[in-house]
Specification:
Blueprint lengths: L5 H19 L1 H16 L4 E5 L4 H6 L10 E3 L14 H6 L5 H7 L8 E6 L5 H12 L3 E6 L3 H4 L16 E4 L22 H22 L15 H11 L9
Parallel strand pairs: 1-2, 1-3, 3-4, 4-5
Length: 251
């Protein structure tokens, strides 16, 4: 594939970002793994949240082959994915004050749990309030965001802060403001967003770090196997039965 073509350029850009995150955020990713392992070892529960396209990396670690069975998605009706009509409603809901607190009030999250909040810009009310309200409840919060937005944009949260300002740990995905890696003659706007590729890779790396740390402590991580290999469903049923009190996507 020619590097001068947009497809090749996108791969180069994404690979470059992945290398940058690996080299510059390695300590933070390892720290995230420690928080995951600490939570599991203490009997806590694990949750992920993201709105709009930031929900994709959150969903990527939940109920999947090769994944940690204890990862749960914290859904916000209308704000997760683009399955609502009009799709712009999801973006509007990210700016609604009080929504995150209402969601947490009716969620199973409690003190001692861990919540990973994903927001590329980290500027909207929903993810910022989610982090603030969760920490007030004694929940540890990992923020996965682009720190660059904090200097390149203004906050839309009443607190005036960004997601990065309200977390126990922040992992920076290094995505530039605007989330578009390419430009071309005849195309009126930048294109080819890489945030999903990079942020999903970070999520998998953080979970992998947690799994590895649990194993090092002599704690067997509850893993899921593919249902498309022999014995996979039987294995998963045993895991879900044993850890059912910490798995919420079955209820």
């Amino acid at each position: 594939m020619s590097e001068s073509k947009p497809a090749g350029q996108f791969f180069d850009a994404a690979i470059g970002l992945l290398r940058q995150v690996r080299d510059e955020e390695g300590e933070h990713i390892a720290a995230a793994g420690t928080l995951i392992a600490d939570t599991v070892a203490a009997g806590g529960r694990l949750f992920t949240f993201g709105a709009g396209h930031s929900s994709l990396p959150a969903q990527d670690v939940v109920y999947r082959a090769g994944g940690l069975a204890l990862m749960n998605l914290l859904p916000v009706p209308g704000a997760v994915g683009v399955d609502v009509v009009p799709a712009t409603l999801g973006s509007a809901l990210e700016r609604v004050d009080g929504l995150a607190t209402t969601v947490l009030d009716s969620s199973p999250l409690r003190a001692g749990d861990l919540l990973i909040v994903i927001s590329l810009s980290g500027r909207n009310a929903l993810p910022v309030e989610m982090a603030i309200s969760a920490r007030e409840r004694g929940i540890k919060v990992i923020g996965l965001t682009s720190v660059g937005y904090a200097t390149g944009t203004t906050s839309r949260n009443p607190s005036g802060g960004f997601l990065k300002d309200h977390c126990d740990l922040v992992v920076d995905n290094k995505i530039a403001v605007g989330d578009a890696e390419l430009t071309a003659d005849g195309v009126g706007a930048p294109f080819a967003p890489a945030s999903t590729v990079v942020t999903s890779a970070i999520m998998q790396s953080m979970v992998a770090a947690g799994i590895g740390e649990l194993a090092e402590r002599g704690i067997e991580p509850p893993m899921l196997r593919s249902g498309n290999v022999d014995g996979g469903h039987e294995w998963n049923r045993k895991v879900m039965a044993e850890y059912g009190d910490r798995i919420f996507y079955r209820r």
